[in-house]
Each structure stands twice: as C-alpha cells, then as structure tokens.
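Quick board copy: two proteins, each given as sequence then tokens.
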Amino acid sequence: MQDTDAARQAAEVAVELSEQEQAPDPRRLVRALRGVARSANRVAGSARRGAGTAGRGAASLLNWLTAQVVAMGPRLRIRDQATLRAQFPGRSDEEIGELLIDHAARAAMAVGGATGAWAALPVLPAFPAEVAAETLAVVGIELKLVAELHEAYGVPATGSSAERARAYLAAWAHRRGFYMVPGGLLLAAGSPLARQLRRRLLARVRRSTFSLAPLFTGAIIGATLNRREMRRLGRDIVADLRRGPVVRAEAVGRPPLTGPRD
C-alpha cells in the first residue's frame, strides 16, 4: 500500500495556512514541513539506492509525488459556498474569490519562505526531501484554492468526494475550470490527465528548487515565486468561471476548443 503520510500532513498544512487570518508562526510552519520532508525522505532514499541513474531517481520521486497529490485531494477540507458566505459576510462572490486568492498567495509565500530558511540552518533534510515537502504543501494550497473558487462562484464539482477531488485535480493540472478540461478524467498511467499532472508537478518541483538558494536569498525567491504563481493560477481559474459552463466540443463532434495552459 502506498504510504500516504506525506499527503495527509501536507493537506493539514495547506488547510491551516489557507484559512488563517494572521501570518503563520515560522517555527511552527518549519516543523510541519519537516514532518512532510521526513516522509518524503524515506522514498527519496529508496530512490537513490534503487536507481542506477539520477534520471531514474528523479522519475521515482516524481511518481511518488504524483501518488501523494492524488491521495491528498480528498483529504483537503473544502468550504462550500454557504460556508464561505458565512465566513465573509456582506461580500460578493467576486470579492470572496479575491480574498481566497489573497489568502492562498500569502500561504504559499509563507511555505516558500520557510523552505528557504532551511538553507540557512546547520542541519537540512536530505535533498530532494525539502523540495518534495514544499511541492506538496504548495500544491495542496493550490488545489484548495481551485476547489473553493468553484464553490464561491456557484459551480462546484458533483459526485463522490473522490470524484470531486479528481475533477478539481484536473482543473489544477490544466489551469482551467473543471468543466472546461479537455479529455477524460481517468488517472490511469498514460492517460491525458496523468501526463498533464506529471508535467505540472515537474514545473512545480523546478520552482521549489529556487527556495534552496544559499543563505536567505532562497527564502526571498521562494516566497516571491510562490505568491506570484498562486495569484496567476487563481486568476486563470476565475477567468474561466466568469465565462460559465460551455458545451463540450467532444459532445458535438468538434475538436476540443481548449487545451492546457502552460
């Protein structure tokens, strides 16, 4: 059975940070991320021992990250539209969406800064464990943002918790409203969604490595990149939600009108 400790811990970090009104305690956040890193380090160590090349080791880590992200989706606490309106009384759906983006950007910035601070400590978790920890925490924040934007705009995914999580995962992977995602939602190896998910995770891992620059420059770079990317993601999703549901091109025999954003 796949070890999902990191998925559970990252989901807890993502939920807590996204819903906080105040800036998080940096030391507490570092401790939480270390817990994720310890889980990642077990797999990373196995990958290094079992892989004959650096490329195979990286592929093993990416496979593990993909499985953790899939496992993390249903573990994220998603606030529905009624809960969001009660939490932000007197706000319009547009204003609530902007607040969600602001909170998510602040949370991602905190994760980038905390990861960067590791580079200034005398003892580090073994690379790439800290990259995996930041990746999972930020992706959790992004998935929660995507889901709650759909809720805020009154177009939530339907079905079981697993089906809703898969729909939001597809929306995250393609940077689109879930009803505009091209192709199916199957996560089988080699499926369009699985390939796009891996591409998005690889891009996220590459951004996470900037947080490990020497001294405290990594904290600054990581925080800035995470905040900028979170705002960009939120605005991409909102742009689709404002357009509203569309008739799927596949249903009327036309080529898909939309593809994944970079």
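And the next:
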Amino acid sequence: MPNPNLEISVEPPYFVGRAVVFFGWVDDFEHSIAAVQFSLDGGVHWTEYATPGTSADRGVRWRFTYTPRKAGHYLLSVRAVSGTGETSTLVSGYAFQVFENDTATCSEQYHNPNGSAQQPVRMPENNSGQRRNENQIAQETDTGSTIKTHAAAASLPFGSFHLRPIGEQRWGASKLYRSGELFGITSAEAAFLTHDLGIRTVYDIRNEFETAAHPQPFLMGAKTVALVPNMERRRKDANKRLVAGVIDKYGEPEQRMRQNYRRYAHEYPLIGKALRSMAAEGAPALVHCVNGKDRTGVLCATLLRIAGFSNEFIVADYLHVNKSNARQIAEEEKRLGAGMTPDEHAILMSFLEARPSYLAAFFDEAETQYGSFKGFIERGLRLTPEQIDVLKFLIGS
C-alpha cells in the first residue's frame, strides 16, 4: 500500500491570496507510483497528477502549491496510486486555518492560544461547497474561556489514548510522544497536544483496515503522516481469530507474537522513514498505532536504544503499556476468553499483553539480518550520525 508523506514550506499563519507550498514523497516498497492525488474537500473529490517513468525501487517526490481565496479552515489530503492501479486507503493530511490579510490580528489569534480550544467539529461546508466528514478536523475556535491544560499538571498517561513521552515518564523529558489511536479525541485533549506540547507531526502506523474503521482526526496546525506496515496485507479480526477452540492453532503462549515481532524487524523502511522524518523536522512529534503496544513499541524501543538507554530501561518502558492498557486488556480478556481452557487463556493473554521475549525477538532478528544493531541503524534504517544527534536531543538523552 503506498505510503504518502507530507511537508509544509512555511509555518503558519496563512493568509488569503498567499501561496502555500506543500511537498513530500511517496513509495510502495514493492511497486512503482503511477500518480499522486490531492483533495481539499475531505476526500469527496480528488485531483490526480500522473507520475510517469517511475520504478519500484524509487519513491516519488511531489510538490503542490495552493493559494487560498478566502478565510476559513482547510484540510489538504494526499494519497497515491500504485503502478498496479491500487489507490491507497492511507491518507496523509494537514489541517490549517487561513486568515484575511490583517497580519497583526492574525498573528495574535494564532500565537495566543489562551481561551482557544481545538474542537472536533462538523464542517458545514468547505471551500469547494462540499460537506466534510464529521470529526475529520479538530479546529481552533475562540470559546472565550480558558481550557488550556498545563503539561506539568497533567496526569500520565494522558487522555483516553494513553499519551506519554517516549522514554522518561515525566512531561518535559522528551519532545517525542507515543499513544494509542486518536479516534474520539476531545477538544481539550487536542488543545493539550498542539498548544501545550507543541506537537507538529502525528505518525499514524496503522494498517489500511484499521484506519478505515477509525479514521484519523486531523489536528489543526499539525500534519498527519500515514505509514502503513508494508507486510500487513491481510485483514485481521481478533474477534474471529482469538476464540475458544480456535486460538490453540497459534502454538504455545508467546510463540506467534515472537514471530510477529521478528517480522516487524523486516519493516525497517517504515521505522527508518519515521525516525529520519523526526530528525529532519527537529520538532515535537507523536507516533501511534491502534493500542500503542506492538508497532509503536518496537519503534520506540529502537529509538531509545539508538539514544543510548540501557536494555533494562528500554524493556521497562516497553512493558509500561500493560499498565496503561490494563482496563482494555481486562475487558478483552473477559469478552474473548469466555469458554476457554486454561491453555487457551494463556495463549490469549500472550496476545493481549506486552512481553519481554517479544522485544528480544525483534532485536535478535534485526541484528541477525544486519550483523549488529549498528548495522541495522546504518544500513537498515539509513540514519546518519547527524540525524542520530537530533533524535538524541529530542528524546532528552
């Protein structure tokens, strides 16, 4: 599935009549890219630009210039079409606000978030006259009341999606964050992410079926980058797979999950792309999958090891997700475990929980493929010493 990335040429605020240049790249790992598509009406209509002459071993760099003609809230969505004609269900997007040409007033509104909230709202009409999807944009509105939450006073993890800094378990220790999916985020939670923490990029590493089930809410002023795991091609449904009388086909407890984590070690294009992008921007960012456990877990563990944290610390940080997701784990255990034998129940819990052996399997596979973890960093993730220095700074090491 093609993976679109998106960058912005200038920082907001944006003004009527002034061009905004967007650029990025897209690749499919296995196929060439035939076209890149853009939408400004929430995906109702798409404008396609062909990319002839591309090959499977190279991505496509694209550039899109848009000059807004009236003030309001906008969402630029980007997706790709592979050489086989497959239109990506994964969409990268950037939600932004355009002001009239009153520079002083606009600057004050944009840079003073006091009394403003990020509201997931229904956009009655967009600038093309088409209705947008509900909860597609979390927009800023002037409510006249202060709802800004100071980071130092917020609990850890934060929100229903269990947001926390990568690494040290305190706010301010890292500018990089991890969580579960953001579907259902509230206005106060969105304001905390963008205003208090200054998050400018959200890396969504869910697969196409997961994003279709729970579409990503686009936060005003922050771009979203969709990065699909390149080896997850088939739909998975835990409700149908992890049931009594069926679950024992996955072998002994932890066996299947260790295999999955070894497979994650082969998804280095995804991990490398996210880490290189974080280093290039040097700004606060958030990475998430569905539960913030497996794909997010290995990416964060890789980042911590690159930054020089001890193995004991990395494992403890990885296992912290069991505490964050304790309620969800208990609910799924009750819902899926009815009628299971003790052996089946043990297998079920091995799927629901993070386990030390999973992370060990991931690192063992990465080192086996490249001879060492250093080889994995240099040849697999393709990180330069300069990029590594930026990542260390962002994570506070």
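Board note added afterward: The chain has two domains: 1-107, 149-397.
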